[in-house]
Structure formats: structure tokens, C-alpha cells
Amino acid sequence: MTAIQVKICGIKDVSALDAALDAGADFVGFNFYPPSPRSAPAEAAAELARRAEGRARRVGLFVDADDALIEATLAAVRLDVLQLHGGETPERVAEVRGRFGLPVWKAVPVAAAEDLVAARAWRAQADLLLFDAKPPKRPDALPGGNALAFDWDLIAADRPEGDWMLSGGLTPENVAAAIARAAPPAVDVASGVERRRGEKDPGLIRAFVEAVRRADG
User: Active site includes 67?
Assistant: First the structure.
């Protein structure tokens, strides 16, 4: 049985990174979407990426970014995966994958069963689909990281094909229930391991990874 993989997203300081690495997270995510409180300047992310090298795969999160932004970021920061978390079309996902030669993940917002059906449009182009809760309809809502979960039974009822990851509102307290209901091969957390919006708590990071490992048996 393959262990459930864990991604800690929105890391922007050494204490959070070291907590994720020491706990055994498989992926660490750096946010390059400036409106987000979790965004990290390229210079800071570059140092964190160097520190993580060989210990976890480094994921760069972009929202409707053009080629110039992705290219400039990759020139400064060593990344292993590109995560597209906006309204990117399947064609755009294919373009990014072909141009930059890195695995590309596509985040898909989910609120209802039909959203999982619609997600199949990206299956051929994306290396992994990340199922996140659909953002609330309010001006300050972000594409992700809104501390909202969707109904995990939707996944159980319509099991995704290929590689995928569960995200949205996960915490150290509820991730075991999410695993029991959705049986994801990987989980992603951002807001659920923060003491304040955009500020990671090393203790919560460790607790989250430990909760996944216990639930994984």
C-alpha cells in the first residue's frame, strides 16, 4: 500500500518549512499569487526552495499567470511542480506543461457532483488534479485557502481516475475523517495549519502530518 502523500502549502518562512520537512511532508508549496496572504517574494522562496532540496518536492502555486511570470519565477526559484489554481483552461494547462517541462497540477473547485464531472476535461493535460472547495462569493475570497471544505462523499461517489489530491478546509482535527470518507492518495493543507491568516504554526504542521500518518495506518 502506498502511503498518503502530504503537501503543506503557502510556506513563506524557515520555521514553517523546517516543521514540514522534519515532520516528513512530501511536498512543500510556495505561493506566487500576490493577493494571497501566503504569497512569498521570489527571493525568499528561492532560499526556502534551496533548503528543501532533496527532502521534499517543491510546488509553485500560480493563479492565471502568464508565461513571463512563470519564467521569471523559475529563473529565481528551483521548483519541481507547477500548480495552476485559477481559471486556466485545459489548453492553457497543456501549454504550460509543454513550455516549461515540469509536471503541472490543476486545481479544480468543487461544490457539487457536476464539478467532478467537469474536472475530467483537464485529465489528459494535467499530471494531477487537486480538488479544492469552491470559493465563496465574496470580494475578499481567494481561489483557494479559504478554510472551506466540500462534501467528501462526492469523491467517494465518483472516484477520480489518475493522480489526484484532496484539499479545502483540512485540519489536524478533521483530516482523518476526510481520509476515511474520500480515501485520497494525497492531501493538501494551507489555512488549516495557521495560527493567523497567512501565518503558519509549526506545531499545527507537525500535528497535521502526524494525523495523516495515523489515519494511514
Answer: no
